[in-house]
């Protein structure tokens, strides 16, 4: 059976399981990457105020010719814009740069201690006004989610966290699942750093797939939405090819066992 192409969020809206992460691309390069991604079949674009390319993503959405209703657009609250009023203002600025009246998903990018609770109230307000079709968080572990639940009126639809076979967090995955929060992985292919893991190569050979395809398939076979980044059209296509097969239970179990706590970004515990 092939992996699903969409996941259903806790408010019943559908989100593509695999999308384009737009970190570290700027200007014309970012615009072209998003146009190419939409052209080869991507329907989820993940940007952020912090990435300084919302305007480029917005131009690409205009240029692509793909109907707005067919593209799932995520953006995120910047770390310097926490607090109720600040977050509302930052959201307006993001919408302006994207040239949109509504985003599909608005996330708290990092759980900045001062302000994160008030920011969540602002996201709930934005959701109530229908200006984001879903709201969520990023970089929240169980402790931070439990803190959010103390005051939140709305359960986040998504928790975007760093995750890969080398940073498998089954307890957090189960906790999110039990609380109807969709997990989404960033740095899903470890920026290529782990592609030389010798255990990966026999699996690639068995399926006739590339390291990126095998690793991304591991995510989607776990039901984890994922957002690999590339500015190269051939890699965009390659990464989307992760949806064209399914790893066996044996290989999934094998890759689950590679967890070594390998991280590229800061852990959520830095924000306690
Ligand atoms: N919420 C957060 O705090 C947070 C933090 C980090 C990232 N993110 C999001 O997650 C997205 C993905 O994470 P990431 O960009 O850090 O890392 P990633 O997707 O794991 O890796 C991207 C890197 O791998 C290369 N690459 C892409 N496809 C490849 C392939 N098939 N073969 C070999 N190399 C390949 C890319 O280079 P080329 O572009 O040259 O192809 C790029 O250097 C980001 O873009 C961003 O949207 C969120």
Outline of the structure:
The protein has helices at about 25-40, 55-65, 85-100, 115-130, 140-150, 170-180, 200-205, 210-220, 235-240, 250-255; strands at about 5-10, 15, 20, 45, 70-75, 105-110, 135-140, 160, 180-185, 225. With about 270 residues, the protein is an alpha/beta fold. NADP nicotinamide-adenine-dinucleotide phosphate binds near residues 187 and 265.
Give an overview of the whole structure.
An eight-stranded parallel beta sheet has the order 3-4-5-6-7-8-9-10. It is of the alpha/beta class. The chain has helices at 27-40, 54-64, 84-98, 116-128, 142-151, 170-178, 200-207, 211-221, 233-240, 249-256, and strands at residues 6-8, 14-16, 20-21, 44-46, 72-77, 105-108, 135-138, 158-162, 182-186, 225-226. It is globular. It has one domain: NADP-dependent oxidoreductase domain (TIM Barrel). Helix 1 (27-40) crosses helix 2 (54-64), helix 1 (27-40) packs parallel to helix 9 and helix 2 (54-64) runs parallel beside helix 3. The chain binds NADP nicotinamide-adenine-dinucleotide phosphate.
